[in-house]
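Open question from group meeting: does this chain pack into something compact, or does most of it stay loose? Before anyone orders reagents, we agreed to write out a predicted structure and look at it together. Recording both the input and the output here so the notebook holds the full record.
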Amino acid sequence: MKLNQFGLQQVSLETAKKELTTIGFLNTTSSENATGLYFELLQKSFVLVQDEGGFIAKIGNYLATGASDLASFYHNKEVITREVFYTVALQLLEFEVGIDFKPETLEADLKKINLPQVSGDFSQSDTIIEAWYLLLNSHTKNGLALIDKLANLGFYRNKQLEKPFFFNGKAQAVFETEKIVREVVYVEAPLDTDNDGKRDLLKLEILRPGETERGLQVPTLFTASPYSQGVNGPAGEALTYDVNVPLERKEPTETKYEDIQYRPVENKLPAEREVAGSATHATETFVKENNHTLNDFFLARGFAVVYGAGIGTKDSDGIQTCGSVEQTTAMVAYIEWLAGNRRAFTNRKDNIEIKAWWSNGKVAMTGKSYLGTLATACATRGVEGLETIISEAAISNWYQYYRDNGLVIAPGGFPGEDADVLAIETFSKMQNAGDYLHSKAFFEDYLTQMAQWQDRKTGNYNTFWDERNYLPFIKDIKCDVVMVHGLNDWNVKPRQVADLWDALKDVPIAKKLILHQGQHIYINNVPSIDFHDMMNLWLSHKLYNVDNNAKEILPDIVYQVNTDAETWETAEDWKGSETTTLYFGEKELISEPQSGMFSFKDQLPEEQFKQYTKNIDQWEKELKEAGPMDGHRYLAKSAVLTEDIFLNGRPKVTIKVASSQDLGMLSVELIDFGDAKRLKPVPDVLMPKGLQLGYNWREDNVVELKLGAKTPHKLISRGHINLQNRENPWKVSDLKAGEFVEIELELHPTMYHLPKGRQIGLAVYGTDFEKTVRGNQDIEYTLDLAESQLDLPIG
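Structure tokens returned:
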């Protein structure tokens, strides 16, 4: 395991002594002898051992040198050295002798593991103190800092510490999770989405530290999850669209953006409810929420956590609208209540008002995918109380989730899904049959309208999608933003976060970007990066006003290197400093334009077509190899690379193309060719439930992205375009059979190292069996090679 720590705050020796004294490692009777002090510190870290004999027995399990265990070292009164300190330190951090490191190669192994270290004379007490403080804040092999591991064993249980308590600028697990208060309130939103003449009441599930009952006010992590009250899988499956349909020609238009721009309509709202009384405590509770483990980590550290599913979900009013302005307004209402600026009630009937008296008014939003999407949406409202968002794998423009450049495009793994499908899947109100009865007809009418508005027929950008595009409003964001995204996420594709990152550049807030090599995953349980620490540093600063230099310590961009496991680096920007251009040859990508034409047929033999519809992985593999796809796509490779290159940003293709019909589409893949072990995009589980999140508290799996078996190629990036939307996604251009047109297509952005010895490949084809419609139409595409090129962002 290689450690990568970006959330570590460097402190002075004076501060280290002060913090170690506060938590009981140092006191007035601490030894002034360095070796004696070391063993005192070590004994206090053995939380489960209460006597001297037990301690000596335990340290006998640790190796001090290649020839001595630590108990023998202790009995022989040998002097602590740097070598002994770090040999033991690695074992305390759960690294195994003979597997992860060896005493005889200690220095090389320390460098390989990337353990934070101190220099200095280990015969001096101050060096021991400095090294011990740093060790406590170093990460174990399995994902948490050593101080967190000690807390999980009960280190803080009998200590009289102020709550919340911070160590190295981060909130500590000093809260009693067994005393967490669970309650439900109903927030009154400024909406009437089910048109019943009453403002929508929205269920909110709250988990707050029991210490709030004694007057402590705490900040809140809010996860806006339309999934949290359940999903309607069968209803979604029934509405899912058939993608084995032909691409259709579109009549040309001169549509301008202003013609389809979303303009909100002011609707008169029903009056607010008349308050019939007030209460300080809720009358409804719950047993187990649909939890997010990052939130669980912070529940043990003095943060409240709330889950709101919003309109049209179980026990809430309204209907589900999938990304609409109303959905954002519903989620904003929760934040407003937490900040003291909106009303909530104890139930949906009695109008008994309840306030968030336990809240300090500061809120952060967390969550992945739809959850992170709604965090971005809420941020664009500039709502008071929202201090930061941690948006993971978030959509910034719903059009680019279900459409792209005039094409209907499926999110990876979900062919046939669309906005209305997601709406009915998350309309968990359906599961309460009596409640659903009153809004069923209204919702069914809305779904019918939604199907028309989303327009699967043309795939054009229109008013429906413009309403669901947050990018024009990024300028209104006032809170600081953390973005996390997978460079191999073909569900919420990398362009979503890149567009958000670019739009935020001129917004006067702090913004941080973390890019991993995984698919649509969380990374808070990946031990090679200290994500918990990074977010703890960030949220302690943002929500508890801890002066810990979080904005300066956390790099603006952290990315996972694709060529090695457990390796993370920093970057200045997601944009290369130069561009390398390769031109289309008949079978090669070349350095100079070369005349010629290349044609391929989109239509496949019927059996081959049917096979690919059932086995997307087979199609994806054969697309990149000589064989059944020959004659059905353009495939070219560069010369073998003589030096490493780093792709950083948005590759772009310019292609001059003709279709044999008066319609057409192109799909493009950028490929890494060369036999090599590559990171698997889905992490391996290293330890099931091996990540403990607090004392006697919840657990998470420890996972890591590992190198897989050798493969001959790997997808780097891709893109799609309808040839009739070559100017923009709302204007339809004419296309005549046999007419050459030029398209420019930006592929999804990447950060990708290509070592020397590899080849850059490019595939150009029509039907994408996972993403586009699949009509198996009799279309031949012809590329003008001399007028086609690939531009790569380098550096």
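Observations to bring back to the group:
The first helix runs from residue 13 to 22.
The mean pLDDT is 97.
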